[in-house]
Amino acid sequence: MRGVAAVVALALAVIACARSETKSKPLSEPGEKVYKLRGKIVGRSSADNTLRVDHEAVSGYMEAMTMDYSVRGAAVPQLPPVGSRVEANLHVTDNGYWLTDVKAAP
Questions:
Q1: Domains of the chain as residue ranges with CATH
Q2: What separation in angstroms does the CA of 31 have from each of 22, 27, 28, 73, 95?
Q3: H or E stretch including 26?
Q4: Is the dihedral of CA 44, 47, 69, 37 positive or negative?
Q5: Helical H runs in the chain?
Q6: Phi, psi for residue 45 in degrees, rounded to 5
Q7: Residue 4: is its pLDDT beyond 70?
Q8: Is residue 38 within 8 Å of 102, Cβ to Cβ?
Q9: What pTM did the predictor assign?
Q10: What whole-number distance in Å separates Cα of residue 95 and Cα of residue 73?
Q11: Element holding 60 (H helix, E strand)
Q12: Structure confidence at residue 26 (pLDDT)
C-alpha cells in the first residue's frame, strides 16, 4: 500500500512540474531594464520559442551582435519571417533576457 501511495505522489509531482514548465512566463519582471532592439531575424526555433536576431547596438547596454532571444507574449511562428527587419523590447534582469512586442520595422 505504501508503494502505491509513493508512486501516486511521484506521479502528481511530475505532473505539477510539467504544468509549471508549460505556463507562459510574465512579460515583465521586477527589477528589469527595458531597451529598444532593432535588427534582422536570421533564424528561429518554434520548439524553444526563440528568435536569432542580428541586431544593432543597444544604446546603453551592448554592442551590435547576433544572439538568440526567448520571446514572451507571442508565438514565434506568428512573427515576421526570417530576413525581416524588426523592432522589439529587450527585457534584461540579473537572471536573463527576452524579447516582447516583436514587430516588423517601418
A1: 33-104 (2.40.50.320)
A2: 24, 13, 9, 19, 10
A3: none
A4: positive
A5: 2-22
A6: -135, 110
A7: no
A8: no
A9: 0.75
A10: 19
A11: none
A12: 75
Backbone dihedral angles phi then psi of residue 29, each to the nearest 5 degrees? -135, 150
pLDDT in tens, 15-69: 544 443 445 787 777 789 999 999 999 999 999 999 999 999 999 899 999 999 9
What pLDDT score was predicted for residue 8? 46
Going by C-alpha positions, the residue among 60, 70, 57, 63 that lies closest to residue 97 is 70
pLDDT at 3: 53
Strands, E assignment, 1-106 = 33-45, 50-55, 65-71, 85-93, 96-104
Distance of CA 86 to the CA centre of its chain: 16
